[in-house]
Write a structure and sequence with these properties.
Blueprint (H helix, E strand, L loop, with lengths): L1 E4 L5 H11 L7 H9 L4 E5 L5 E11 L2 E9 L8 H15 L4 E7 L3 H9 L3 E6 L9 E7 L5
Parallel strand pairs: 4-5
Antiparallel strand pairs: 1-2, 2-3, 3-4, 5-7, 6-7
């Protein structure tokens, strides 16, 4: 598996993964917008054919904080450690750039995702009412960027 920064020609594949994995609708241009905000926060995992099978899109919210906007792995490639590799790469890049903490939102009833994040050091820090387009609530989670290895 190759972990690298997002490139413009990844847009089609990343949008497809988002459409298959996330329950919100996004236009393909959103990935280029995020890339313009913080290029280092756009990471993809690719097979040896260099086609993305997972991605994270994060933005810096201030000099010491970042927020994960989208994070998904293609359904056919889940439970292989790809999500962990992507998240580790993001945390390493963030820490090297002086980011101290990373936040994200996840649906309050998405137990699988919440468990994934908890195992990687994220802790709940609040609930956001009617956060999603369909009125669903989100659990806000946070973790230090620096991994304790």
């Amino acid at each position: 598996m190759i972990i690298r920064e997002f490139r413009h020609d990844d847009t089609f594949y990343v949008h497809k993964i988002a459409s298959l994995s996330l329950d919100e609708e996004y236009l393909p241009g959103i990935f280029l917008y995020f890339q313009g905000q913080w290029p280092s926060g756009q990471i993809v995992a690719c097979g040896y054919d260099d086609i993305p099978v997972g991605f994270v899109s994060a933005v810096m919210t201030d000099r010491s904080s970042a927020r994960i906007m989208m994070f998904a792995v293609d359904p056919d490639h889940r439970s292989c450690g790809i999500g962990s590799m992507i998240l580790t790469a993001l945390r390493q890049k963030a820490a090297m750039q002086g980011i101290r903490n990373i936040t994200l939102e996840v649906r309050v009833h998405n137990d699988h995702a919440i468990s994934f994040y908890r195992k990687r050091g994220f802790i709940p820090c609040g609930t956001l009412e009617q956060f999603y387009q369909d009125g669903g609530n989100a659990l806000k989670m946070t973790a230090p960027a620096q991994l304790n290895i």
